[in-house]
Amino acid sequence: MAQVVSGYLQRSGYTPVLAPDGATGLELARRMAPDLVVLDVMLPGLDGIQICRELRAASQVPIIMVTSLGQEEDRVRGLEVGADDYLTKPFSPRELVLRVRSVLRRTNAMPPVRSDGMLRAGDLVVDRSARVVSKAGRELAMTVKEFELLVYLIRNAGRVVRRDELMREVWSHDFGDASTVTVHVRRVREKIEDNPSRPMLLKTVWGVGYRFDLPEAGAHG
Questions:
Q1: What is the pLDDT of residue 45?
Q2: Running along the chain, 221 residues long, what does each successive block of 10 average in pLDDT?
Q3: In the chain, which end has fewer C-beta atoms inside a 10 angstrom radius, N or C?
């Protein structure tokens, strides 16, 4: 499967580097600093969950996890340790190429710094141009999808945003597992809220979706 996927990626203009096992993959990722990592959960040696955790400790590189059909627990665990997206086997290599292209397009679409590139919500500041989030002057480590999710919610502050809308607008999927959104919301909440168990900014509207509530200071942009 890795050889087939590699061939599709290469024909699409990318430069894939294959690793035969988990430990080699982790070493290559650390040494080469790739633009994106496609990570299978089931690997010889170190498994994909452990590798994802290790990568996230030092890098915000986009990670697409590959899991077996029906392994919902693995999908959720992967998202919880920092994966941006996942694919369930069996999948079409063309679909993986589209996912890679979508993630990299968003990652590389970094416009020049402009005066209107800021979003503010109380002591939370999001610099869209530099792709930096800070709270009370302290920079927060955000993955690509966490950043895009937060930006989308702030730009739609005060409105209930449904999970399927977030899947479509942030992940570019017309359908998908709701746990992808749920886990990412939880990860964002843990970073931006003073008390994540009693959120004041990113609130759940049960049975519908999520709403970002601005404090008295508005958001600009």
A1: 85
A2: 88 89 91 91 88 89 83 79 87 89 68 56 87 91 92 90 90 76 94 93 92 67 44
A3: N
Cα angle value 213/154/75 (rounded, 5°) = 100
Domain range list for the chain: 2-108, 118-212
Largest Cα–Cα separation, the chain: 54
The amino acid at residue 143 is: T
Which residues have a Cβ under 8 Å from the Cβ of 71 and sit 6 or more positions away? 41
What are 170's strand-pairing partners?
Answer: none
Quick one: fold of 2-108?
Rossmann fold (3.40.50)
> Whole-prediction pTM value?
0.63
Categorise residue 137: left if φ over 0, alpha if ψ from -120 to 50, beta otherwise: left
Q: Which amino acid is at 31?
A: R
C-alpha torsion 157→172→186→78, nearest 10: -170
Domain range 118-212, CATH architecture: Orthogonal Bundle (1.10)
Domains 2-108 and 118-212 share a fold: no
DSSP letter for each residue of the chain: -HHHHHHHHHHTT------SSHHHHHHHHHHH--S-EEEESS-SSS-HHHHHHHHHTT----EEEEEETT-HHHHHHHHHTT-SEEEEES--HHHHHHHHHHHHHHHH--PPP-TT-EEEETTEEEETTTTEEEETTEEEP--HHHHHHHHHHHHTTTS-EEHHHHHHHHS--SS--HHHHHHHHHHHHHHH-SSTTS-SSEEEETTTEEEEPP-SSPP--
